Amino acid sequence: MATASGAFKSRANHRKQIELEEARKAGLAPAEVDEDGKEINPHIPQYMSSAPWYLNSKKPSLKHQRNWKNDLNSKSTCYDRGAKMFQAEKYRKKACQNCGAMSHDVKSCMYRPRKVGAKFTNMYIAPDEKVESLKLDYAAKRDRWNGYDTSDYHRVVERYEARENARKKYLKEQKIKKLEENDGDEDEDDDGLRVDEAKVDESKQMDFAKVEKRVRTSGGGSTGTVRNLRIREDTAKYLLNLDVNSAHYDPKTRSMREHPLPNTDPNEKFYLGDNHYRNSGQALEFKQMNIHSWEAFDKGQDTHMLAAPSQAELLYRNFKDAKAKLISQTKDSLMEKYGNASTEDDIPMEILLGQSERQVEYDRSGRIIKGQEVILPKSRYEEDVYANNHTSVWGSWWKDQQWGYKCCKQTIRNSYCTGSAGIDAAEASLDLMKANIVRTEVRPNKVEEKRMATWGTDIPGDLELNKDVLSNALKKEDELKREEKDERKRKYNVKYNNDVTVEEMEAYRIKRAHHEDPMKEFL
């Protein structure tokens, strides 16, 4: 699930990314590779694999999960196991009270506890061990062979050689003992000893894959034996081709999709990849059965491939039988209606061999000179079929990146042919459109600003407003607005006048609240 960046992705790309991640988890697609060429585990969650935005990582990587501040000393990656530093002759202050070494205290002393410690006896002082403080990485801390001296392996070799020599000596003594008892038959006894040794080895090899485990009880109970049925002589699929650029192998699912050795002899190929076995044999039949089960469930059948496999297989067999029966019935009905040419009488030899009384002349090279007309090859499509009164076919005319009819120069398919009159009308409309374009370009585009009058009509040129009267009308309009907001300020004696002056109408228009005005709340 490692991603290079958190850029926006479309729905289709997001779906493809999810499908690719599922395929990587299942082992059907190769794992993602970081900047150093190492594979990234597809099971790592996204919140761990995605790098922070401030790192500007353009490629997927897991470097942000490593400890950058830890400066490891590559020269000191191992310590000297069992190295001695100094051998003291008498006890020193702050040394181990048991052995007398300065490298540890009495609580962490690994020597045998003495009855009287070296602190009091001042004898047999143990040497000081070499203590190192190394900054090791994750793997070095858990390396069980860190500090191991390879020269110590000769002790293991000597121990095994001594055991082998003892075994040979024992066999030789048994052989001499049997020779002394029988005084002969040396060959038979030798063969008997070899057979016995072979029997012992065979008995040891019989249970190489036997695993015994106890069931249902912690201390005893019934015992079950599990045997590994895999033949150990078979070569593992990841060892067939050791090239790193060959077919990808997923160790988690143990799957290898492609053929590891595609260029080998077909007779020597015994493993062709998981995709080959997945799309052939019973695997393909199982896939078709599974698809049939899905479609049957969608159409209302109560079936499931995993819950009831026998029922699903029976339904699939019935479906195949019914399909084959339907195909045979359709074939029989067609033969009954149109007949079967294969069951009729034999074709006459004249027609079969192409014999006729027509005379044909050939030249020396085998070309026909006289007697046979040249037949133009025709396609399986209908030719020279004119629809909707056209005299030419569609595609016989080309103009302005469009196909059309040559007879009427129309670019709309299946349109009715208008002939030469349609051509003239099209040219006239084109000329008129060009003239209109030229006229609009030449005419000046001046928009006269019109002042709207207070009554909703055009303002006449001789209209004049009195500024003092207009200011009084505005004040009066404000007082009316305040009275509308607070009814307590409304007067009892209301004077109503039906005459409205031009200034009062202008004041009403100015104070009127416009719904489209963004500043109407501040009026």
From TrEMBL:
Gene Ontology cellular-component annotations: spliceosomal complex
One GO term (biological process): mRNA splicing, via spliceosome
Keywords carried by this UniProt record: Coiled coil, mRNA processing, mRNA splicing, Nucleus, Spliceosome
Coiled-coil regions listed: 423-490
A molecular function (GO) term: pre-mRNA 3'-splice site binding
Subcellular localization(s) per the UniProt record: Nucleus
Main localization (coarse): nucleus
UniProt key word Nucleus: yes
InterPro entries (alphabetical): Slu7_dom (IPR021715), Splicing_factor_SLU7 (IPR039974)
Domain Pre-mRNA-splicing factor SLU7: 136-396
Family: Belongs to the SLU7 family.
Subunit architecture: Associated with the spliceosome.
Function of the molecule: Involved in pre-mRNA splicing.
PANTHER family for the chain: PRE-MRNA-SPLICING FACTOR SLU7, STEP II SPLICING FACTOR SLU7
Name of the protein: Pre-mRNA-splicing factor SLU7
Organism whose genome encodes this protein: Brassica carinata
